[in-house]
Structure formats: structure tokens, C-alpha cells
Amino acid sequence: MSLKTSNLAFKERVNHEVNNEIMRKAVVKAQETIGANRQKMVDELGHWEEWRDLAKQIRNHVLQNLDAYLYQLSENVIKNGGHVFFAETAEEATNYIRRIAREKNAKKIVKSKSMVTEEIGLNAVLEQDNIQVIETDLGEYLLQISGDKPSHIVVPAIHKDRHQIRKDLHEKLGYEGAETPEDMTLFVRKKIRQDFLEADIGISGCNFAVAETGSVCLVTNEGNLRLATTLPKTHIAVMGMERLAPTFQEVDVLITMLARSAVGAKLTGYNTWLTGPRLEGETDGPEDFHLVIVDNGRSDILASEFKEVLRCIRCGACLNTCPAYRQIGGHGYGSIYPGPIGAVISPLLGGYEEFKDLPYACSLCTACNSVCPVRIPLAQLINKHREKMVAQNLRPPLEKLSILGFNFANSHPAVWKVGVNMGAKLMNKLIKDGKAPISVGALGEWTKARNLPQSDGESFRDWFKKRGSN
Amino acid sequence: MDFQHNREQFLNRLAAKMGKARSFSPQAMEEPLNRYPTERLTELSQAQLCEEFVNFAKVMMVDVKVCPESDVVSSALSLCEKYGGNSVILNDDERLTRLGITQALQEKYPCHIWSPKTGQQNIDKAEKANIGVVYAEYGLAESGGIVLYSQPERGRAVSLLPEKSIVVLRKSQVLPRVAQLAKVLHDKAQKSERMPSCVNIISGPSSTADIELIKVVGVHGPVAKIYLLIDDL
């Protein structure tokens, strides 16, 4: 997989998703449950706005000193006996990891959930060498066996219900047990345990790397990350180059904000801080540790007016509050990064050609701004994309025509007056039971899911004039 | 391409994109905007911290038994009995030996003591053990979690592979939150001491909510987590 998760056109994806009752029910439940848990944890912590200020301050400091911190980090990883590879592109990153896998003669790799490895399409590259790559996060594992794609940054299989999951487990792995999350989870536990014991390499992402010590900090609830970094002889951690903290003290702030924002928990079940390979005399943990630091477009973002988005700590809080995500789910975005954060970073990483529709999958309600733990002004950045697309003449043709028409009417008062008067009368005649007979363009899209308001045939100006004379 | 060349090419290019001269050491961190992370919960007495720790650990589905040091052996035995006894694996931790837990469990159950001398056998034994027993460096009041450092005599797998995990901890070692642990590690780094290869902060048993957001315990790691808390205050 890579950044793009669908070859369908945006409208086709959206049409498909708004009719996916299971997904919509699941996303509503997730937004409400996680949202309520998050709020509880925000209240419990207290001084939330000040914590956000501090998290923003830390992330900005890191971004301003990124070259120096990456240098310091790499020095310390090497000092601890690890290896570091800097990858400018996705291809460089996957080629390096492939080379390590070949050197180790790897047949089986266990992976812990990692967005950046999804972004660079790592699994497909390794599978070309007939290496079995097993996603070990339960949600990712369920998606992998059914050939599906993640629809959420934190809860990747949120769009599936237990019936679908049982069906997949039965068809792909011969599961005959009950349709309960407990039984299905136990089945997967038994199924994967042997894979952990047999795997040659464990691959993980990196929530935060610590420049001062050369450590990588990883958070999970399931324990799969611990297994993937304890049992195989080689551990490869892959990090987006901005995921740094100066010391463990800043990691404290960031994991506090991450757990509370992502799942409404004080802390995730496991926080694993790894420094280099195992030490002399240790029996478990990797003998060989590699850190792959990936740019893949991030330095261009850092040099642009979108650089604030690199503060992101991938908590998914913006998804959990977004009304557009609520309607179209993650698959509607066609990117491994969905929701508001996806609408900002997908076009930056993948280009406007592929993701020009995403900034328009947003009502600019700013709900995402208000929950972001590192204060990324997501709505403003989404709007900035639209401005750039206008400047580059990339806006949708219908929008171009509409704006031209609006500009003309707006600058000619007589036309405006005739337009609104006629429009009010016309709508009064045409709208029946909330629907219009001519359903094209934006009007058509709107009426697919909503009713139009019934006009009484009077324009606002006329109504106001009468009201003023009373 | 060798490492130096690969790194210099990457970082020089990055600095150029950032519109600045390449730097090798970061500017000092600005004064933090506030001190909430380091000051939170520090107004509590040690006893209150422990109460907070126990209460939240229970919320996280941890079974907590508190006892005086004089009862720690009998408590360890009764906890092992409660969780099915059978095969046990322990870290070769002198703190467990000094408390008499290691010897008592060895007499009662088939036990394996994690040792650098027994290599891969450690992992095989941990995988088959019903209970793993470890001694924690710290407890964290805010999250009800415990902190483990890896060492040759203290395997990562002892708290990971067995179905049940018993953690022995002293009340006096309960810290307010991660900030205080981070400070300990930062101070070590400042003195150029090597970090443990693995520091684990563990709050509760392994769990997932990936199917319909329903919390299920024990997806990969231990299905039960038990704290044996020694009252030494």
C-alpha cells in the first residue's frame, strides 16, 4: 500500500461510503465514544489549553532545529551500536529495508502498526522478495487478511463490524468460533504468537525519537510492539523525520497529549522506550537495530506555508470530531491519512493531481482546530490549499463558473436585485417536499442527502423592507 | 553510499530547505510556557500518591495486593495459587531474592530463573510459563503504571510472554507521573550513562478495542496483571 488507497474518483468513493450503513454507524459510535472519553481525560488533566501551548512550543522548537536534532539523534544511535539511514524518498527507504532483509535472509517479518511504512508502501516491496509480512496490530491484521485498507489513523478497522470480521476470519483462516470480539481476539492471539517466535525481523514505526539518548519511544495497547521488538533478532524502526523530541522530558508531554487525544486514556497500556540493540549479556531484544529516517516530501512542507502541519503527533483527534469524516469515513478520502489532517497532508505528500478533492471535503467548521493537541490550524491550512489551487487554476470547473457568476451579480446591484427576487419566486414554484426538479451540480449533491428549505416566494430584501416600514 | 555521506547529503539539503546554515547542535530550549507536567500531583504525600496509584491501577483492571514486607512471601505464594500456579518464570533480580520470593516460589512450583547463561532457553521457558514475576523500578501514580528496565538478568519477555504477570513494587518507589521518570533518565543522559536498552512503562494487561471499540483484554501480552505492593511507608 502507499499513500493512495483507492483508484476511484472522489465522487464515486463518497457515493459508496455515504451508502455504507455499517461504516457510518461505526464511525458515529467511535466519534461519540472516543470524543466523550477524550473530554473526560481533558477535564481530569486540567489546564488543557496550557498543555496544548506547551506541546505546540515543544514541537515548534524541534521543527526550528530539525537538522541539528537529527544529527544529534543519529550520533547517539550510532554510539549505542545501532545503524541509521536517511531516506530522501520512499524508494530509498524501501530499498534500504529490502537490502537489510536480504542480508538477513529474512523469510518472515512481523510489523507493528506504522503509518509511515504504509505511506512508503513497504509491505508490497518486501513481498516482491517472497517475504511474509505480518501486520500484528489486531485492526491492521484484520485488514490485511481481507485485503482491505485502514480508514482511521488510530483505529484502522473502525469501518468493520463483528459480522464482517467473523466472515473474514472464517473465509481466510477457517475460524469457526463465536461472533464475539473476545473469541475472535483470542483466535488471532493464538494465530500470531508463533509468527512472533519465528520472525527474522520486527519492523515498527516511531512515535517519538529522543535526540539526547538516541532512543525510540513507541506506544501501543496490545503488546504486539513489545513482541515485535523483543523476539526477532533484527529491529528496524521507520520514522517520519519530524517525529523527534529533545529529551524524555518532552516525550512525557507528547505521550500525555497523544493518549488523551487519541483514545481518551491517561496513558496507553505500553510505552516502550528502546535504546539501540540489546546490551551484552541480554538474551532478548534485537541484536541489530536500524533507524530509517524518512523525508518523502516533509522537507518541502517545512519550507512551505504549511509547515505547522509537521507538528502533528498522529493522535487522530481531528478525525474523531470532523463532521465530514463522520459522513464519508476514512475510505472516502482515498488516502491513508484521512480526515482533516489527511486533507492537509495528503495533497502535500501526494500532490494536487491525486488529492485535489480533499481540501473540498471540509466545511471549514474548525472543530478540528479546537481539539488538536498541538494547535495545528487545520481549517486554515485546508483553506490555504484551496487558495493555492485557485492560484494554480486547479479549482473544479463548476466552482470557477459559480464564482464568475457570483462576482458579476455581486458587482451589479441591479442584476443582484432581479436575481434574488426571481430566485425566491422560482424556488417557491419549483421546490416540492424539499426537492427541486432540476438537481444538478451543488444543488443535486445537496439534495441527495438533505431537503431544501421551502421558500415563500419573497426575497430577504423585500421582507426586510416591509419589516422596516412596520 | 556510506553513512557519513548519506547523512551529510540529507541534512545539508534539509538545512538549505529550511533556509538556514547547517547546524550541528540545537539552540537551547526556550523556557517552558508552564510547569504543569513536572508539578502535577507533586502536592500529594507519598501515601496519597500510592492511593492514587492503587485506585487507578484497579480501574485499569490490575489486581492489586498490598502487604507489609513481612508478609510478602506468603502474599506472592497466595497470588500464584490464585492465578493457577503451574510453571513460573522469574527475573534473576536480587531484590526478589532478598525478599525471599524467588526461593519460596522455587520450592512450590516448577520455576525458571532468567539468566544470561541459559540463552534462548529463557525465551522458551517464558513462552510456556503461566506466570512471570518481575520487580519494578517505579510505579506511576497518574496512570497506575509500572516501570521496568531491561538487563542481562532481567528479560523483557518475563513480563510479556507468560499469561499472567506479577509485578513486585515498593510503595516508596511510586512517582507522581512520567515526568519524574523522564527526569531520572535525563539526569543519567547528562552524566553520559547508557540508557537501559529497553524501558517499559506498563499500565494494565494487554488490551485492544479494535473490534467495535469493545475492550478485550489479552490480545498479545499477559491476560492478567497483578501488583504485589509492599507497604514500606
From TrEMBL, chain A:
The alphabetized UniProt keywords are: 4Fe-4S, Electron transport, Iron, Iron-sulfur, Metal-binding, Repeat, Transport
Q: Which residues form the 4Fe-4S ferredoxin-type domain?
A: 302-333
Superkingdom field:
Bacteria
List the Pfam families: Fer4_8, LUD_dom, LutB_C
One GO MF annotation is: 4 iron, 4 sulfur cluster binding
Q: Which GO terms describe its biological process?
A: lactate metabolic process
**Which NCBIfam families did the record assign?**
LutB/LldF family L-lactate oxidation iron-sulfur protein
Name-wise, this protein is 4Fe-4S ferredoxin-type domain-containing protein
Taxonomic classification:
Bacteria, Pseudomonadati, Pseudomonadota, Gammaproteobacteria, Pasteurellales
Automatic annotation (TrEMBL), chain B:
Domain of life, per lineage: Bacteria
What range does the record give for the signal peptide? none
Task: Give the coiled coil ranges.
Answer: none
- The record places domain LUD at 51-230
Q: What is the recorded name of this protein?
A: L-lactate dehydrogenase complex protein LldG
What lineage does the source organism belong to? Bacteria, Pseudomonadati, Pseudomonadota, Gammaproteobacteria, Pasteurellales
